[in-house]
Amino acid sequence: MELLTKLSSQAEQAEVVQVQRTSTNVGFESNRLKSSQVEETSGVAVRVVKNGRLGFAASSDESALDRLVTNALASADYGDELPIAFPPPQAGPEVVTYDQAIADLPIHRLVEIGQEIIDLILQIEPEVRVNVDLTRGVQRLSIQNHAGTNVSFDRSPLSISFEISRVRDDDVLLMFDVMGTTVWEEDYIAFARRLGAKLKLARRSATIRSGRMPVLFAPTGTLVLGLPLMLGFDGKNVYTGVSPMRDKIGEKLFDGKITVVDDGTLDGKFGSAAYDDEGVAHRQNVLIQEGVLRGFLYDLKTAAQSGTESTGNGERGLFNPPSPSPTNLIFQAGDTPVADIIASIDEGLLVENVLGLGQGNILSGAFSNSLSLAFKIEKGEIVGRVKDVSIAGNVYDLLQNVAAVSQESEWVYTNFSLPHILLDDMNVVAKE
Asked: Do 322 and 416 have their domain in common?
C-alpha cells in the first residue's frame, strides 16, 4: 500500500487502518415508528512511531492522504514517548462474525421486527409505552503495518434496544435492555417475552423496609457490580495507579464463587472478532479465577506503558486512537438454580434495573443507585414490585462474601453474560 510505504519511509513504525461501515437504523418511540435512516462511514486512520514518539491522524477524506501523512508525523513530535511495537503477523482464531442474512435485512423488515416486539409487549401490558431502536450494520476493518500485519475482517452487528415505561400518577415504571448479535437468530421474540414476564410480575405492588437484607441481582442488575470492575481491569487505569486492583495480581480479592473472563473468540457474539482493532489476535483472558485476580485488559499503548503485552483489547473509533475495552465480558455461572436461590430468601430484594448506572465514584468501587425496577422477595417468593427504593455499597467489599451465583446466565446489554448474584447483607433504603 502506497500510504504505508510513505509512512514507513519517514518513521520507525507505521500502521494504516481502513474502516468501512454502513448502518441502517429504525426507531420506534411510544409504540409508533419514529425514524429510519441509512448512514455510511469510511475513512483511514494512521499511527506512526517517530523518534520513539507515537503519532496519530485520521480522515474521512481518502483523497487527502498526503495531508494525513503530514498530520501523523507532526502529531508524533508531541506524542507519548514509549516502547510500543506494532504487532507482526499472527494467527487469529476462527470466529463467526458475519452473517449475510443480517447484512441483507432491508429497512421494511427491521420495521416489521420492531412492530412485532411492540405488539407482543402491548398484548401483555397495554398501558406501557415502548421505545425500540434497531440498528443493523455491515463493517469491514483492514489493518496493515510496517511489521507485516495485513488483516481484514467483516462484521454484521445487529442490536435491538428496548425501553419500556408506564406512568400512573406518581408511580413510574421503567425497564430497559439491549440485545446484540452478529449472527441472525430470531432471539428477539424470546428477548421480548423475557421483558414481558417482568411486566407481569410488576402488576403487583409491595412495600419493603429500610435496613440490611439479602439482595439478589438479576443479570440486568448485575452490571451495577460489573461496571466498577471493568474500570478496574482497564489497563490505562492500572498504569496510572487509579485502579484499586493495581499490583494485586495473584491475590484473592473476591469470593471463590466469582470468576470473570473476557472472551472475544465466541461465534456470533457482539464483541467477537478474530483480531482487535490493532491487529492483535483475540483470545480468552481470565481476569478473576475463583476470586483470585489473574489479569487486566491492555491495548498496545497501555501494555507498553506497563511493561507487558497487549491482551487483544484495543478498540477504536475512526477518529480516535485505540484504548482498552472488553470484548465479551463473562461472569461465569455458578451451581445453584435461580429458583432455589429465591426460595432460600425469607425477606429480600430482587434488582432488575437501576437508574444512573455509572454515576458516582465507581472507579473506587462505590455505587449508590435508585432502582427503576425491583421486586420484594418474601418467604421464598416474588410478591410484587417495590418503588422508591435505593441501594448502596462498594463492589470490592461486597464481592468478598457472595452467598450464591445462579447456574443460569443471560446475555444482556449486547456483550455481557451475567448470572444472578446473591449478596446476603446489603443496605437497602426505602422511602418512608
From this structure: yes
Question: For residue 155, which amino acid is it?
Answer: R
The CA-atom distances, in angstroms, between 267 and each of 155, 264, 308, 410 are 11, 9, 28, 16
Which residue segment(s) compose the domain that 419 sits in?
Answer: 204-432
Q: How many domains does the chain have?
A: 2
Residue 77 shares a structural domain with residue 180? yes
Nearest to 226 by CA among 428, 418, 425: 418
Is-contact 426 340, C-beta < 8 A?
Answer: no
Report the share of the chain in percent with pLDDT over 70: 100
Q: Which of 76, 47, 74 is nearest to 144 (CA)?
A: 47
Same domain? 243 vs 370:
yes
Q: Is 100 helix (H, G, I), strand (E, B) or coil?
A: helix
Last residue of a domain, which of 146, 178, 199?
199
Entry pTM: 0.95
CA 223, CA 413: separation in Å to the nearest integer? 9
In this structure, which amino acid lies at residue 210?
Answer: S
Q: What are phi and psi of 340, to 5 degrees?
A: -70, -35
Question: What tens digit of pLDDT does each residue of 295-318 get?
Answer: 999 999 999 999 999 999 999 988
95 and 212 assigned to the same domain: no
- Give the per-residue pLDDT at 168: 85
pLDDT in tens, 19-52: 999 999 999 999 999 999 999 999 999 999 999 9
Nearest to 363 by CA among 385, 337, 396: 396
Residue bearing cell 408506564: 166
Q: Which of 199, 220, 235 is the last residue of a domain?
A: 199
Cell of 63: 483523497
The amino acid at residue 77 is D
